[in-house]
Design brief:
By secondary structure, the protein is an alpha/beta fold. Helix content is 38%, strand content 14%. The strands form 3 sheets. A 7-stranded mixed sheet has the order 1-9-8-5-4-2-3, with helices on both faces. It has a 3-stranded antiparallel sheet with strand order 10-11-12. Strands 6-7 form a two-stranded antiparallel ribbon.
């Protein structure tokens, strides 16, 4: 159906062989592959972080909120231009979301000044997202959290391989949360990682991941333990061995895949700079090295976005929107505050295809279809 789809897996025989190896081992739940994945991923991040692989990125976020003791009566400052998981985990814990706006129409990261303006006596944490793999202003945000004695949670769903002034994203938060969903830079289908530098928080996260049990099933399988205790109330947010095996392969490919994304985005810039009706956020980004998780653009006022999407669909180019703004969702309308800049960006954003195995010719097909759609509207 699609000449160029929004995303394609960067999989080959290595992933197939990794899964086969797990199946042949006869142990398919959390085991040695998971331990290896945790070790290699945290080594990749550096900065002394410790990590636990989990069932998905939302599980990581939920565990972070619970491990930090966030609950009824607390407020958490969350991004308004993000996937709804950030708000849902706060709501499920019984706390209140207070939305922070984006910085500007050029910089869609959370605005540090707006974060600080939203702090009250009930604020317990700040939950940030590095939109599209572009780092937030971490110096400013970390200083705000330190000044007001607030926990910092990093939503790093978009960030594997991205840095802030040379330091890996995911190493700033009290807890940082990664997603390895199908369309992510590191993809295992469903899966995630929760990381921290605190041994105390790590033990809480470990209990939350697996029913509060003191001994994992793998240790009993290996004969290293006979029974177990339950030290706290916990959940079942475990990952399986197949996904951990996929993660190990994908991690080896990550830097090369991100470099391919960088070259493709630069070609997008060459084609779209100066095109009437289009503005590209983060165009002159200087806070570090992005990993270009997605390729967002902003359509100017007066352009019918649905007509553009339908025109590109007719040319067999798939597009998407990242994201509908939080305050517009039925479940949050009238419950969370307005964020006018994020509202505008959400109403004008269009996501173009981007994945490591794209060619420059694919990018040209996308840009040609976009320009054609804009010309049909007089641009």
């Amino acid at each position: 159906m699609w000449k160029v789809q929004l995303f394609k897996l960067n999989f080959d025989g290595q992933e197939q062989e990794a899964v086969k190896e797990v199946l042949d081992s006869a142990w398919i739940t959390m085991g040695q592959k998971t331990l290896d994945f945790e070790s290699e991923f945290t080594k990749y991040l550096g900065e002394g972080v410790k990590g636990l692989a989990v069932s998905n990125g939302t599980a990581a976020l939920h565990m972070a909120v619970l491990a930090l003791g966030i609950g009824p009566g607390d407020e958490v400052i969350t991004p308004s231009l993000t996937f709804i998981a950030d708000q849902n985990v706060v709501t499920m814990a019984g706390a209140k979301n207070v939305l922070a706006d984006i910085t500007s129409y050029d910089d869609w990261s959370m605005d540090p000044a707006d974060i600080e303006a939203k702090i009250t006596s009930k604020t317990k944490a700040v939950l940030i997202v590095h939109y599209a793999g572009f780092a937030c202003d971490m110096d400013a945000i970390c200083e705000i959290c330190k000044k007001h004695n607030l926990y910092l949670i990093e939503d790093c769903a978009h960030t594997p391989g991205a840095t802030y002034n040379g330091r890996a994203l995911g190493t700033f938060g009290d807890v940082s949360c990664f997603s390895f969903f199908t369309n992510k830079n590191l993809s295992v289908g469903e899966g995630g990682m929760v990381v921290t530098k605190s041994d105390e928080i790590l033990e809480k996260l470990r209990g939350l991941r697996s029913h509060g049990m003191t001994v994992p099933s793998f240790d009993r399988f290996k004969g290293r333990a006979i029974t177990y205790d339950v030290a706290m109330a916990g959940l079942n947010y475990r990952i399986d061995e197949m996904r951990s095996a996929l993660g190990l392969v994908q991690l080896k490919k990550l830097d090369g895949a991100n470099e391919a994304r960088t070259k493709l985005v630069n070609h997008y810039y060459e084609r779209l700079d100066g095109v009437n009706g289009v503005k590209i956020p983060f165009r002159n980004f200087t806070r570090g090295k992005p990993n270009f998780h997605i390729m967002p653009i902003m359509l100017e006022d007066g352009i019918d976005r649905i007509a553009v999407i339908e025109s590109m669909k007719a040319d067999e180019i798939q597009t998407s929107i990242h994201y509908p703004v939080i305050q517009n969702f039925t479940g949050y309308k009238g419950i969370v505050n307005e964020t006018p800049k994020a509202q505008y960006a959400s109403e004008h954003e269009l996501t173009l295809p981007l994945y490591p195995t794209m060619s420059f010719e694919d990018v040209d097909l996308v840009c040609d279809a976009l320009i054609k759609a804009l010309k049909a509207q007089g641009k």
